[in-house]
């Protein structure tokens, strides 16, 4: 293996020479770029724009929840005819909830997070000149871009955007007479998602091939940084589960447009019986959640990978239990594909199936617990450099624990009965995957900003403001929400005024909304910091965080091929921070880190991790 | 409440200003222009991490103190006590773990904040430790899984023992209908293809089926206390979910199939109204409603506690208002009520339009 890898390295060095003389136009450099670093930036900026839309939507419907039926000029300004006299329409409320979910889960946290950092870091951290196929990579981004555009266009459809919830369960999503959003809006939603899935598959295949084949000399699988392990496994679960969502979407399109009955049967609506016979909505639920649950980990694993890397670097300590971390990632990935039924305990499927899914679901808590404990131990006796990226990583572990623990309730089929589809669920998944993955995204942006923008750094003090306000508000929104769910308030209710038993919860709703609005403002601080740093950011040192991984040995200025000279060779794992010899001296005198490119010193023991 | 909000906002603004001034100072000094955390940053943020731990505990205690009373009252069904107990134990475990792990995480963040020339400990592995924190969750979860599955199997076992009352819950956008088996306690055959709105056969019952003639169709669910009820759920249009939170009961209604759930109500509505928690809740709610009435706002009629059936699966525009009242009463009261109801056979015979079953009530109310 090492011989072939070596040969490969040489080859690439030669290839690269040719590239240098190739003149790049504006179009090939900034638009149809095949360079993974540029594609990463394209993913990030598209993801952030979608994130802005998604978060803005959540603020709108949070205001409706806190002050139901109240008139707000902002509603009228943003929603137009959907907010006559500034009062939000009930169909629009459902549409906002639906598109918020879709955008945040797929467009921000799948493409924006995994797309950005897989593209940026896989070649740089494994020591490759680029992805295995730069062309497929470009195609993947532009399909993502197209699907984003279609999703945004769907917001302006006459009858309104899709409004059946982000899970778009039929028959609601299949029948335009059940809900106006199930007309053109839903068609565009399905088209957008079909293209998105294709984009995600192209990307994932590329990541897998690149990690397996293009590792530099000495970069064995067990020397890979945990970021790469996370991206690699994420790509694999993406390839396994996304096609199933595509089939669900295709069958739904057929039911909607071509009169088939895959998911529909025995329907009487608006005074007439429809012809559908023999289909089952439960089948759709199975297909959807076969992706839908792994999707949670497609969102979360890259965030955990980023956290591992950022935390170890800033703690100036090796990540604790590297092998256990890799094993947990694999265990989580495997289990994630056989737990989907816990979304369907009370869907009408056989209760025995519910038992099986309870069993597999609660098992997933074990590798998750191992990861949490390993993070905590990584901090123990460290020399923590509390950069914004580090704070977001610690924040991630905190919300991952808080949100993950309530999974023990929801994963238990018995306990799920009464909290299913209530705000308890909303609180749970926002903390464990929404907020946690966003923190991972932010940690990654703060940490690798210099790598993306040629050495420029983001302002740390604005970063601190961003983190602390966000951290307080995230708990402020989602902690009290558990109680709302335990009081029995169902999710996706336009307002809770039809039930006197929910009257006294209005105060909590107001509290959560105020926190959400403040959190929204805090994101503007990030946006300002991000944009101004791109243009006016101060250049930092080449390796600002004193990190061991290969990306910091690459040229600061972006060149096609990453390294001007030959690709570096790797001699050790990525986590030799604060490693000392027998005399208690650092391996490299005066320096508490040993980059992966430094050969083993005389008498140095390589850790058999 | 408003005071609290103002306080929180003020605190946040204060933090923001504090940090902003720091930025200003730094930009004045110019000596320290690096965007990499220095000892001061580590110190400040280390303290902040500790403060954040206190914040997490504070918001937990605050939420319990202020919001515990919002939680559902004790279960009104036979299996509900098991449910509540399992929930309590699970929560105890969760809070124990949460308190400890958050403390360790944030305390370490504070304790080991970076200082120049401090040496971190190179500590990459410890099989024993990792074994311990793998095996403990395994044991705890194994216990929870077994207990949960035992309870689940008991709850979900819908059988005909103990002469259960058979009731159909029928969902449509955006209202509920209930159907009783009548004298014979057997539901007549039904299908959406037999719906005849003109003759008020809104549930699509088979008029030729002799079991259907004595079925009773109502818009308010009455249940006799202490008798097991087997629910058969149907939906005519989209997915709905029959959620009866006070009974710890929920099941989706799926077009094209019949789903089932079973429970035994153990407290009548009258008894539940006497419950201290419920009475308190009603008092608090009516105080809010009185205030509304004083301000001339809508939705201000005094409230009396009732069990309720909610729709808990997104079903369209008026999803938020798809409900049916549930009344649990003594056997005598139940029989009395049942006697006053018309059977399906009588309904068809008189062929009167009957109550307007098929109007989308919720939509109209808007």
Automatic annotation (TrEMBL), chain A:
**Pfam families given in the database record:** COX1
Q: What is its main location?
A: membrane
GO MF, one term, reads: cytochrome-c oxidase activity
Gene3D superfamilies (alphabetical)? Cytochrome c oxidase-like, subunit I domain
Q: Name one GO biological process term.
A: respiratory electron transport chain
Location within or outside the cell: Membrane
Q: How does it sit in the membrane?
A: Multi-pass membrane protein
Q: Coiled coil located at which positions?
A: none
Annotated membrane-spanning segments are 43-61, 92-122, 142-169, 189-214, 226-254, 287-308, 320-340, 352-377, 389-411, 423-449, 461-488, 508-531
Q: Which InterPro entries match?
A: Cyt_c_oxase-like_su1_dom, Cyt_c_oxase-like_su1_sf, Cyt_C_Oxase_1, Cyt_c_Oxase_su1_BS
Keywords in alphabetical order, please: Electron transport, Heme, Iron, Membrane, Metal-binding, Respiratory chain, Transmembrane, Transmembrane helix, Transport
Q: What are the residue boundaries of the Cytochrome oxidase subunit I profile domain, all occurrences included?
A: 26-581
Q: Which GO terms describe its cellular component?
A: membrane
Q: Does the keyword Transmembrane apply?
A: yes
PANTHER family this protein is in?
CYTOCHROME C OXIDASE SUBUNIT 1
Q: Which family does it belong to?
A: Belongs to the heme-copper respiratory oxidase family.
Identification of the protein by name: Cytochrome c oxidase subunit I
Q: What is the lineage of its organism?
A: Bacteria, Pseudomonadati, Bacteroidota, Flavobacteriia, Flavobacteriales
UniProtKB/TrEMBL annotation, chain B:
Query: Is the keyword Transport assigned to this protein?
Result: yes
> Cytochrome oxidase subunit II transmembrane region profile domain location, by residue?
64-159
Q: EC number(s) on record?
A: 7.1.1.9
- Biological processes annotated in GO: ATP synthesis coupled electron transport
Q: Which residues cross the membrane?
A: 6-24, 45-65, 85-110, 131-150
Q: Which InterPro entries match?
A: CcO_II (IPR045187), CcO_II-like_C (IPR002429), Cupredoxin (IPR008972), Cyt_c_oxidase_su2_TM_dom (IPR011759), Cyt_c_oxidase_su2_TM_sf (IPR036257)
Q: Where in the cell is it found?
A: Membrane
Where it mainly occurs, coarsely classed, is: membrane
Spell out the family assignment given in the record's similarity comment.
Answer: Belongs to the cytochrome c oxidase subunit 2 family.
Which PANTHER family has this protein been placed in?
Answer: CYTOCHROME C OXIDASE SUBUNIT 2 (PTHR22888:SF9), CYTOCHROME C OXIDASE, SUBUNIT II (PTHR22888)
- Its name, as the record gives it, is cytochrome-c oxidase
